[in-house]
Amino acid sequence: MADGANDEAVGDNPEQAPSEEVVGDVPSPKKAKRKSAAAAAAAGKRKSKRASTLKKEASKKAVDKEQHAPDPPESEAYSEIKEQLNQRYSLGRIPEAVKTTSFAKQDLEVGRNPKVLLSKKSSILASSDDPFATREGKTLLWRDINMVLSGKKDGEKDRYLLEGVWGEVPQRKTTAIMGPSGAGKTSLLNILAGRAASRGRVSIQSEIRLNNYVVDPKKIEVRQHIAFVAQDDSLQVTATPRESIYFSAKLRLPKDTPEKTLIKLTNKMLQELGLEKCADTFVGGALLKGISGGERKRTSIGVELVVKPAMVFLDEPTSGLDSFSAMQVCRVLQKVAHAGSSVLFTIHQPASDIFNQFDQLILLNRGRVMYQGAVDDIEPYFQQRGHPLPPRYNPADWIMTVAQSVPWEELISCGFFPEDKRHLPDPDTEIFVDGKDASGHHSDEMDDKSYIRAGILTQVHLLYSREIRNITRDKASIGARFGLTIFLAVLIGIIFLDVGNTDKAKPQNLQSHFGALIMVVLMSMFGTAQPALLAFPEERPVFLREYSTSHYSVVAYFMARLSMEASLTALQVLLLLTIDYFLISLNGPFGIMYIAVYALAMSSTALAVLLGCAVEDPKLGQEMLPILFVPQMLFAGFFVVPELIPVWLRWARYLCSLTWAIRIIMVEEFGNGCGGGEADAACERVLNSVGASEDETWWNWLILIGLFVVFRLGALFILRQKALKFY
Ligand SMILES: Nc1ncnc2c1ncn2[C@@H]1O[C@H](COP(=O)(O)OP(=O)(O)OP(=O)(O)O)[C@@H](O)[C@H]1O
């Protein structure tokens, strides 16, 4: 960080003289000189602004005093490290950037003895019902971030979307990223949050340090340390704001957090964000009317803030909010920062009262850092470079006007775009190497087991309850699912009414009986697998957000969905088979027939889930439906006998659950005799045509169950890979 910003960062004392230097290369003027040179109106305005700044600092100080116990005496470890730092830099003091970022006293102690602070954090998180309780923050700093878009054709120039970007998010500060549209704000935020990676024509290089541990934020264990609120809200449509916030608190706070603390935290969060009136209304979505867009945005913020995160990143948290709500959100972010968190967000042209709430600003222009430092230092910084803030002008508007209207060459020649002058210590040196792993692994700092969150059973239970709640609230879709099942079951039953009792010696009767069975099994597959195929692509944004912010494990999510699908499928198959068994007058024992149809439905659902996990878009999921069913029908042996299928393709039938299920069902239906004589011989021929034999029934069961297990494990694997690679 540049000097001016550092002064601000360390100078919490309201009595302290304003920083004398501003960020960058150009020497800074004295504030007094600036005051006297300004016009009377401007001076008056600045005075009041300064007064408000001092007031802000004073209140910050008061909050700090109230929330933070006095520092313990300097530890031996800290003194020793400070001494080594002094020797290394030969500056007689630790550089400010270092002091305010990676090597603040507590950070060094975390590096040395992380357990002490982490256990302290655990007890604070578990016991306090204040969402703004003091927490152990983290400092994120970065340098040399480049994002390059390579030219499409040979000879076409590469374009820098971000170039040499540097900066930091200090603890206990709010840091805003501003800049004209296309300046690279979202790209920078995404890179820092591990949500962007080199891909296609875009390549990204970066050096990012978390408490001076060089980390790769793309790694899930690093990402899970950062509470992230994306621009587009991905909340469960049928949950209410209260349920969404509680769900996050229950799963992410230590598992010994008392229930009443969770409820109090939720209520306080709702109150702080002005969500009390709509706390029990559905969040809603495209097909379900719910709370407003602004309320949804604030709910997303509440979901992240309720867990008292050490670091919070937000992409345009105030977009779509009216000025009152925007101010409310900024105040909440300020409170979170004062509690110890590092808060970073992108924002578009804030109103001046909102802008003045921020502590730090990173101004990007065409992918480069035009300013980085304290908000209070912006005015002298721009004045020094020949663009003083006009009287009664919103500073946020002014800096954007300068960034957009002044010619690029002039901005450069005026001394904007300061170089990164920080002297960051080498993270590979002995002092800082403790527990460090460039990938973020095995570092105490990255130790995600700093406290025990809800166990896997609680996760499954909460997720399962949420799924069931989702289904019961989404009456239209559950009504359609069961309504259609009943309608089609009755239709099939009426069309094949009593065919089970006809004389099988007549080929047309046997064919109808066989057709009735095929219709029932196909119906059980279609009716259950189709919703399962579409479920994951539709839930994907919510799952990825929750997984990447450490709500639950992939296995817990998977188990909860499996339990929910198993319950729904059991009910659906029961309805279908009960209606058709009696209308068609099937002959096989009801229990075994039910289990066989259920096993087929579950196995088809498993394949559907596998495909659903592999696609990202619900529309693509719809298109995949034929792939799910057509091969099954082709290879099962009832449309075409396997001998007529080309040899090199015959193996495919072994992967079709329908092949094995139909054999089991046929044996139960026709294997116990069809009335003797010619009828028995006809039934035998039917069994042979699908390769069914009573002796192989156990094998058929085993393979059917095996396919279910393989498809499910495949889906779990794909889901995990997707979740880990989420960009
Ligand atoms: N994957 C990508 N491929 C090509 N260009 C990209 C990619 N990602 C970002 N860009 C380009 O990088 C530039 C910065 O984009 P970014 O979304 O970060 O800007 P922004 O400052 O957040 O803009 P806005 O304020 O309009 O949201 C834009 O010109 C954008 O088109």
TrEMBL record:
Q: What residues does the ABC transporter domain cover?
A: 142-391
Q: Where is the composition biased (Basic residues)?
A: 44-53
SUPFAM superfamilies attached here? P-loop containing nucleoside triphosphate hydrolases (SSF52540)
Asked if the record carries the keyword Protein transport, the reply is: no
Protein's cellular compartments? Membrane
A single cellular component GO annotation: membrane
- For this entry, the protein name equals ABC transporter domain-containing protein
Q: Which organism is the protein's source?
A: Cylindrotheca closterium
